[in-house]
Design a protein that fits this description.
By secondary structure, the chain is an alpha/beta fold. It has helices at about 35-40, 45-50, 60-70, 85-95, 115-130; strands at about 15, 20, 30, 105, 135-140, 155, 160. It contains five helices and seven strands; from the N terminus they run E-E-E-H-H-H-H-E-H-E-E-E.
């Protein structure tokens, strides 16, 4: 929440480009672990437009947002409750990314997805990071398979930074 500018830190500061992130709300987007909790509208086009801040009547923008996350543009008129878990996660991403954030925080992005959906989402996120320069922060208890997306890891233990293992097995 602090990294997204939604809470003030109790000590220290959280900066983006040298300015407090709290003064730049929206520059860092958050995708919840349970995508369904983030989807508040009845239809995909309504959800994406609301999250991105544009008029849902602008079908071109909705279609572009869906295509950016690998979804069929015709999905825009589908009801949210007709989507699979993987599709819901991508709809959330479509709305967030359409706002052009500088960074995105993903809470357990692979949780609850089958293996094929996990691979597809990882490819999408890796491509976004590589091709757009988007900073991707992943919060996870299990980093198996995330090496391509997360070239660097930071571990917390009891709210403190914990020593990260080096490739040789020692502490960094």
């Amino acid at each position: 929440w602090i990294m997204a500018g939604l809470l003030q830190p109790s000590g220290g500061s959280c900066l983006l480009d040298g300015k407090p992130v709290a003064e730049q709300v929206g520059a860092v987007a958050i995708s919840f672990q349970a995508a369904r909790l983030q989807l508040m509208r009845s239809r995909v086009d309504l959800e994406i437009a609301a999250a991105a801040g544009f008029d849902y009547h602008d079908h071109r923008l909705v279609e572009r947002a869906l295509a950016a996350v690998g979804l069929d543009p015709t999905l825009g008129l589908r009801r949210i409750d007709q989507l699979s878990g993987g599709q819901m996660r991508r709809v959330v991403l479509a709305g967030l990314l359409a706002r052009s954030p500088r960074a995105i925080i993903l809470d357990e992005p692979l949780a609850g997805l089958d293996a094929a959906s996990q691979r597809g989402l990882l490819r999408l996120l890796e491509d976004l990071r590589r091709n757009t320069g988007l900073t991707v922060v992943v919060i996870s208890h299990d980093f198996a398979g995330l090496e391509g997306l997360c070239p660097r890891t930071i571990s917390l233990h009891a709210g403190e930074l914990a020593p990260s293992p080096t490739p040789t097995g020692g502490a960094a």
